[in-house]
Amino acid sequence: MTTETPPPSDSRIDARVLFVEDDALQLMALRRLGEKIVSAVRGAPDGQQGLQVWRDWQPDVIVTDIHMPHMNGLELSAAIKRENPDAQIVVLTADLTDDSLIEALHAGVDRYITKPVDMRLLADAIRKCLRDRDHLKELRLNREITLLNTALQKEKAEHLALIRRLEEAHNQLLQSEKMASIGQLAAGVAHEINNPLGFVTANFSVLQQYIARLSRLLATYAGFENDLSAQERETLAHVKAEIDFEFLNEDISDMFEESSSGLRRVKQIVQSLTDFAEGGGTDFEPCDLHECLETTLSVMTHELKGKTQILREYGDLPMVECIPSEIRQVFMSLLVNAAQAITGEGRIVIRTCRQDDFACIEVADNGHGIPPDILHRIFDPFFTTKPVGEGTGLGLSIAHGIIRKHAGRIDVESAPGQGTTFRVLIPFHRPEAATTTA
Ligand SMILES: Nc1ncnc2c1ncn2[C@@H]1O[C@H](COP(=O)(O)OP(=O)(O)OP(=O)(O)O)[C@@H](O)[C@H]1O
Ligand SMILES: [Mg+2]
């Protein structure tokens, strides 16, 4: 049985208070007292009804007796605190030595007032309860704001990471597209050069034979020089001097030697261009990458010149399905570049490990490094910082083409003055359709 009081007068505290008390006379007295202090009061004769009123009416403060039938004050307090830990509960006690009072305070009841209830003390307790409730509300709000802030920061970091990943993917796509179109261009150029190169090389070798034959004829003529008249010999000597015959005779063979080495180099460059465009094109087979590395190192003694220390940090790698000759070519490019980046003494660390379904091979040197402004160009064909004749600038672009064909990827990190690390990832198994991720 519950009833509500009339509207508040100005001097009263604007709050709703529920009194729970089984003694009807005491409940009435409490309500009267309450009406003088706060704007709205209700009453309930036991814990059970008190809980119901609390749920329906949501009072600001509950003032309850401890000892009551059906549900006592302790049980009521526990039930309310379970549903709302911030609820403000004041217990009434006639005896300060009552064990139940201690129990109530331990169970989270906020305050107590002794019976008979003094109006000033009740008003004071209600005010303090309201203040505590506001304080708790503020604390909870602050906590929620902090949690929200943390969640927002986390979300922001995730967004940033996502943007970074998108940028990376975008850059990789751009790089792959660029490589694909440059590959087509390279294939076209290689094809165009290949034809004239073929007949120039063939003609050159025939020309070499013709010159040899003419030289033989000249030598034969020279044998008859003594049979000529003095005037004829003089004319001949004059022509020989005019055309610098002695020098010409010697220089011809040097020029042939230089020209054929030049032709061989052009042929090699055209072959590299074709390799870059096609990535080599032989068979995939299971391959021990450590063996590949060792074979490559064994043919590199000239490049390493004994000044570079090679440190092997080999992990455990399964057989990898790849085209071994091409993968060796990639290793060779990376190792030669690393060796060339080292002036004086230095070291190259070769690390291998498994990374999910990929074999990871790192070639790290402590050479001069790559300046950030050219880092994005090093995979471009013909990009080189090496003196003319020393580098064609095709090593890395071919390596990129090969790794792309293997559906792997190749990355670089470099700190100028400290060194460079190239990381190659090759899938353990041959891709169904070799797609590009590099
Ligand atoms: N380990 C490295 N340290 C410093 N710079 C490097 C390294 N690897 C590559 N580079 C830079 O990248 C450029 C391109 O390398 P790439 O292998 O494609 O061509 P290259 O070595 O110049 O010539 P090529 O390999 O055809 O003989 C190099 O000229 C060099 O500037
Ligand atoms: Mg190179």
From TrEMBL:
Annotated Histidine kinase domain ranges read 188-430
- Which residues are modified to 4-aspartylphosphate? D65
Q: Which residues form the Response regulatory domain?
A: 16-130
Reactions it catalyzes? ATP + protein L-histidine = ADP + protein N-phospho-L-histidine
User: Could you say which EC number(s) this protein's record lists?
Assistant: 2.7.13.3
Which InterPro entries does the UniProt record give? CheY-like_superfamily, HATPase_C_sf, HATPase_dom, His_kinase_dom, HisK_dim/P_dom, HisK_dim/P_sf, NreC/VraR/RcsB-like_REC, Sig_transdc_His_kin-like_C
Please give the Gene Ontology molecular function terms for this protein.
phosphorelay sensor kinase activity
Q: What class of enzyme is it?
A: transferase
Which keywords belong to this entry? Answer: Kinase, Phosphoprotein, Transferase
What PROSITE patterns is this protein classified in? Answer: HIS_KIN, RESPONSE_REGULATORY
Q: Which Pfam families match?
A: HATPase_c, Response_reg
Name this protein carries in UniProt: histidine kinase
Q: Does the keyword Metal-binding apply?
A: no
